[in-house]
Design brief:
Blueprint (H helix, E strand, L loop, with lengths): L1 H19 L4 H12 L4 H33 L4 H140 L1
Helix pairs in contact: 1-4, 3-4
Length: about 220
């Protein structure tokens, strides 16, 4: 029993050393622990641990009985001392084995959780890289669009300047034509006035001629 417990404790210590320090065996040990925790493995482990704990409690109870007997008798019995030492050694080894088993379970849990967090961090970093690449591409696209829009804006400004010059020239031509038309109207009015004066003169000449002809006839 004691040899089995020593073997178990040394095995558990070796597993803890493998889990604590990075080495080639660590991956295989983790895979083995993962398999142990699947299916019926947890039930078997709990059963073994419960059995060891019951034996531990039995050893503790035996030690308390021996201790009471030694107190009652008041004399030291070599047989009881040997039994006491044996039970104490067994209880110590079983308690140590249970404690080391708990340590192995917690180490395995924390290592697996740490790996999951590292994977999540790597996934987050990849997503951030993808987002950064997308932002860079988007910024490049925006810069290209901005350059295109600036070129179009410059073209529109040049076209607007040309149209403005044409509009100013057209407005100047219209003003010149308006002034010219005003001059034509003034000239037309003058010609009308002269025409009317000529007609009046002709009418007066006709009246004179007709008046002189009537005198000659008389």
């Amino acid at each position: 029993m004691i040899q089995l417990l020593f073997t178990l404790i040394f095995s558990e210590m070796a597993l803890i050393m493998v889990l604590v320090f990075k080495n080639p065996l660590r991956k295989f040990v983790l895979m083995g622990l993962d398999r142990v925790k699947r299916g019926h493995g947890p039930i078997v482990v709990k059963t073994v641990a419960g059995t060891v704990f019951v034996v531990l409690m039995s050893s503790v109870y035996s030690m308390t009985k021996i201790q009471k007997r030694l107190i009652d008798e008041g004399a030291v019995n070599p047989t009881d001392q040997v039994l006491m030492a044996g039970h104490l050694l067994e209880a110590t080894l079983m308690g140590s084995s249970l404690f080391l088993a708990l340590m192995i379970d917690r180490l395995h849990h924390y290592i697996r959780e740490l790996r999951m967090r590292r994977k999540n961090m790597e996934a987050i970093k990849k997503q951030n890289r993808v987002l950064e690449d997308g932002k860079v591409e988007e910024s490049k696209t925006l810069e290209k669009d901005m350059t295109t829009l600036q070129a179009k804006l410059e073209q529109l400004e040049s076209e607007l300047e040309v149209k403005t010059k044409e509009a100013n020239a057209s407005e100047a031509n219209a003003e010149a034509l308006r002034k010219q038309s005003e001059g034509f109207l003034l000239e037309y009015d003058r010609l009308l006035e002269e025409n009317q004066n000529l007609r009046n003169q002709l009418q007066s000449l006709d009246l004179r001629l007709s008046h002189s002809g009537s005198k000659k006839n008389t």
